# Entry
Amino acid sequence: MAETKPRATREAYGATLVSLVEEGLNVCAVDADLAGSTKLGVLGAAYPDRFVDVGIAEQDMVGVASGLSLTGRTVFCGSFAVFATGRAYDQIRNTVCDSGLDVKVCPTHAGITVGEDGATHQSLEDIGMMRALPQMRVLVPADYDSAAACLRLAAATPGPLYVRMGRHPVPALYDEGFAAELGGSRVLREGRDVAIVACGVEVSQALAAADILASDGIEVHVVDAYSVSPLDEEAVLAAAERCGRVVTVEEHSTATGLGAAVAELLGERRPCPVHRLGMTTFGTSAPAADLLAHFGLDAQGIARQVRGFCQG
Amino acid sequence: MDTRDLRLAANAMRHDVIRMLAQSKSGHPGGSLSAADIVAALFFSGVMDYDAGNPDDHTGDRFFLSKGHAAPILYAAYHRLGWLSDDDLMTLRQLGSKLQGHPDSHACPGVEVCSGSLGQGLSVSAGCALGLKIDAAAVGATPRQVFCLLGDGELQEGSNWEALMFAAHRGLDNLCAIVDLNNLQIDGHVTDVCSLGDIDAKLAAFGWGVTRVDGHDVAAVVTALTAVKAAAGAPQAVVCETVKGKGVSFMEDQASWHGNAPSPEQAATALAELDAERDAIEKEA
# Structure
C-alpha cells in the first residue's frame, strides 16, 4: 500500500477538491467557519474563488451551495456532521433533495470519534436522516483513500449526495486505486461463521476484531459497506447466506443507520439472526479511543459481543 | 409594457388566481393577490431581462419565489408568458399537475428550485448571485441580476438573517430582495404576532440598500427595481407596502384569507370586482 500511516477521512476533503479543480472540474465548496477542522482550508488557500465561508450559519451554507449549483457548479458543503445535517435538515430536504440540485453534503466529525467535544458535537443520527431522503445517496468511507474516492464519485454523480467523514485517524485499508461505486462494498476478509457489515471507522475495528476472534476459532467475514444508501444488497445477502448470522457495526444510532438498513434488507429478503452494534444513547466526552472502548465499539468490544452472539 | 398595461396584467393575474383557487378549492389567495403588482412589474416591464419565450433558459436575470405559498401568482405570470396553458391553471393542486401547491422545479417549467418551506429562498438567491458575479468577473462582464420575492411574515425565519449578513458581506450588488410587506401572516397581523420592528432600519443595518415603495403602484415598483439594477456595492432591498388580498374587497387585510379558497359564490363576487377594475383601467386615457 502506498500509505500506511493512519489518517482521518476528513484529510481527504480539501485535498481531493483541490485535485478536482486542477483536473478542470467546475467544483466549489461552502464552509461554515470550520475550514480548519473540515480540512477545506487548503481549497480556499489555493483557489479563493472556489471557496466560500458563510460563517456560523449552516442553513445559509446549504442555501448558498444550492444557489451556486444553479450557476453550473458542482457544489460541496460541510461542517461537523451534527450541524451540517441537523441544523440544515429542512434546507437539505426541501431545497437540495426535492429540487434534485447538484449539491454534495460532505461533513466531517461524524460519530463518537469526535471525542473530547462530547455529545453535542457527536452526530449519531445523520446517516438515518440522510438515507430517509429521496434523491440522497449516502457514502461512509473507512479510510483516507476510500474517502477520496467517495468524494470523486460525488463530483462525478449529478444530484444530491452525502459523504460522511471523521476526525479520528484510521488505518489505511486501501490505496489510491480504490474506485467507489454507488451501491458498492468491499469484502475485506472471508469467513464462514459470522459476517460483520461495517462502515466508516468501524471497518478497521471490525477487521481487528476478526483477528481476535480467529484465535478463538471463529472465522469472520468482514464487509465494508461504504455505500450505505444505496446499499450493496447482494453483498449483504451473500454474507448472510454464507454465514447465517450478521453483525453490523457503526458509530451511529442503531435505530436508523447501517444496522437498520441491513436489518430491513435481511428481514425482507433473507431472515437470519442480526445483531446491531452502535449507539443507543448520546455520546460523552473522552478521547476517541476511550469512547470506542467505552461503548463496546473497539476491536475488543466488538469481539466480545460477536463471541456472545455466536454462542447465543 | 407601459404602466396601464402592467396594471391590466396584474388585474388579469388576480383574475387567474381567483379562478385557480376556486377550481382547486385550496390554496393561498391573500399573499398571491398582494404580490400581483410586484410580479407584473418584474415579469412584464422589461426590468427583469430574461427569455420570455423559453422557461428553460436560465442565462438571463433570475427570479426566486421564496414565499412559495404565493405560487398561484407565479403560475398566473407563467400563464401570461405562455409557459402554462389555461387548462394547466385549472389543475392547480391536483394529482399529476404542473401546478403543485408550492412551486416544484420538476413539475413546472420555469421553476428552478422547490420552495414553500419559508426562509430558504434568500440564501439560494445569494448563492446564485455570487456564482453569477464570479463568472461575470472572470470575463469582465456585468453580472446578471437575481430577484428574490419574500413575505414579511417569512422574515421571522432566522435563516433569512444569515443570508442578509452573507449577501452584504460579499457585496452582492446583483441581488435584490423584494419584501411583500402586507403585514399579515396566518395567525394575524405581523405586528401583533411577532413584529419585525423597523424593517427598513434592520435591513440597512445589515448593510443593504433599502427602498420603500407602494407595492400596488406598479410604476413606482418598476422605478425602484430599475434603480436597484444600477446600484453598486451592496445588495438591495425593495420593501413594498402592500395589502394582503388586494383587489378583492372582502379578502383585503384579512388573515383568514391567507390559505383559504373562495367558494363559487365568493369567487363570482371577486371576479366581478376584478372585471370592474379592469374596465375602469381600460377607460383611463
About this structure: The first strand of chain B starts at residue 62 and ends at 65. The interface with chain A takes residues 58, 62, 104-106, 112-117, 119-120, 122-132, 134-135, 138, 158-159, 162-163, 165-166, 169 of chain B (CB under 8 Å).
